Amino acid sequence: MAKITYIEHNGKSHTIDVENGLTVMEGAVQNDIPGIDADCGGSMACATCHVYVKEDWFNKVPSKAEGEDDMLDQAYEPKKNSRLSCQLIISDELDGLTVNLPEKQV
Amino acid sequence: MIKTDVVIIGAGPTGLFCAHQLGVIGLKCEIIDNLNKAGGQCIELYPDKPIYDIPAIPECTGEELTKGLLKQIEPFNFKIHLNQRVEKLSKEGNNWKITTSNKNEFLSSSIIIAGGVGSFEPRKFTVKECEKFENNSVLYSIKDKSIFKEKTVSIFGGGDSALDWAIELSKNSKVILVHRRDEFRGASSSVDKVKKLEKENKIELFTKHQLSKISGDSKLEGIEIKHDDDTVKSFKTDYLLGFFGLIMQLGPILDWGLNVDKKTIPVNTENFETNQKGIFAIGDICSYPGKLKLILSGFHEGALAARGCFKYARPDEKLRFEFTTTSKAIRERLGKSN
């Protein structure tokens, strides 16, 4: 279990407990947090679960999957700290993780 | 105007198999899709990736699945209208009228929406001012490459489209290629070629840069790009091309008076009809308790929706349930001789 904080583009913050083994994307979708679309359902075939990982967390989260950067090329306003939240699998180590959501996904 | 029994929106696996089911029960249909080929997400997102959960097919790719489905509906000679998005819907008597983006009109007693997550459209530049010059000097696809001759063309993106066009246009134009990172997702042979052309001063290459600003009043004059470290460069350019892949958007379907919940359309599970009589939704776009976004679920939904269309297409007839193995009528529809 980890506490994950999602900050919407407008600044609204949501902190929820997400079970280990789920992804940061699933945590958002299952808890109706707006701003993560996840059109492809987590198969890394779109870029609509795009998040920005806070600098101090960027090196602590699981490293990028093969092909993740290729999909991020197709995201809305990708930055250096961009990730696809479907590739961030929750574990106890991620307790306290904060992600910022982009202005929009598509 | 094309008159038919059913219009299917979306030529993905669900739409294609639903067409088969309509053909089996003796109804006609026309299929519309915004892509330039049939297959939907299977062909656009993962043509080469294996799929392991199609019943009786232990492993196949998206492309193979699409080919098989197209072969399966061949006997019915249904037409697939590609490269057009459905735009308008209106009621004409007991029928529905659909108009597409190329002004094709369809009249049918039922519509089956098999639109997946929406129609595929190019992702655009996020710099707002680009809209002003869209289709004019800011482009997301190329129809006529001769317009670029002797001009300066700035190309953005790291995939095959961006690389291939940079190589091609460098023959007759001044080409600036910009990508947000050092690696490219396009073919490595194309990356090598671009780097070679850069050495020969035929392409100007800027990696770790993104578009930050454009300038020009009545016509595009220049662009400004920003490096990861926030340093800025600006250029004069005549054209701006963006190749950032495709995104999926529901588009005008949202304005059709259908209930929509989280980008999906709620249906009943008896025949997959929506809140509008004669409009059905199947595949990834529909939702109901227990919905699974699997291709096989789409097949089941299509079989039931096809039968749900029957009462609208043939109000005076009763649909008899028959098996393809034993029905003479179905074998004839499939073009089998005995």
SS element count, helices of chain A: 3
Report the C-alpha radius of gyration of chain B, rounded: 24 Å
The coarse overall form of chain A would be: globular
Number of helices of chain B: 7
CATH superfamily annotation of the largest domain in chain B: FAD/NAD(P)-binding domain
Morphology of chain B: elongated
CATH second-level architecture of the largest domain in chain B: 3-Layer(bba) Sandwich
SSE blueprint and pairings:
The complex is a heterodimer of chains A (106) and B (338).
Chain A: E1 2-7, E2 13-18, H1 24-30, E3 50-53, H2 55-58, H3 68-72, E4 82-84, E5 97-100
Parallel strand pairs in A: 1-5
Antiparallel strand pairs in A: 1-2, 3-4, 3-5
Chain B: E1 2-9, H1 13-24, E2 29-32, H2 40-44, E3 50-51, E4 60-61, H3 62-73, E5 79-81, E6 86-92, E7 95-100, E8 105-113, E9 119-122, E10 138-139, E11 152-156, H4 160-169, E12 174-178, H5 188-199, E13 203-206, E14 209-215, E15 222-227, E16 232-236, E17 239-242, E18 246-249, E19 265-266, E20 279-281, E21 286-287, H6 295-313, H7 328-333
Parallel strand pairs in B: 1-2, 1-8, 2-5, 8-20, 10-17, 11-12, 11-17, 12-13, 19-21
Antiparallel strand pairs in B: 3-4, 6-7, 7-8, 9-18, 14-15, 15-16
Helix pairs in contact in B: 1-3, 1-6, 4-5
Can you put this structure into words, describing what you see?
The complex is a heterodimer of chains A (106) and B (338). Chain A has 106 residues and is an alpha+beta fold. Chain A has a single domain (2-96), classed as Beta-grasp domain (Ubiquitin-like (UB roll)). Chain A has helices at residues 24-30, 55-58, 68-72, and strands at residues 2-7, 13-18, 50-53, 82-84, 97-100. The N and C termini of chain A lie far apart (30 Å). Chain B has two domains: 2-121 and 247-333, 3-Layer(bba) Sandwich (FAD/NAD(P)-binding domain), CATH 3.50.50.60; 124-244, FAD/NAD(P)-binding domain (3-Layer(bba) Sandwich). Chain B has helices at residues 13-24, 40-44, 62-73, 160-169, 188-199, 295-313, 328-333, and strands at 2-9, 29-32, 50-51, 60-61, 79-81, 86-92, 95-100, 105-113, 119-122, 138-139, 152-156, 174-178, 203-206, 209-215, 222-227, 232-236, 239-242, 246-249, 265-266, 279-281, 286-287. In chain B, strands 1, 2, 5, 6, 7, 8 and 20 form a seven-stranded mixed β-sheet that branches. In chain B, strands 10-17-11-12-13 form a five-stranded parallel β-sheet. A three-stranded antiparallel β-sheet of chain B has the order 14-15-16, with no helix packed on it. The interface between A and B is medium-sized, with 18 and 24 residues.
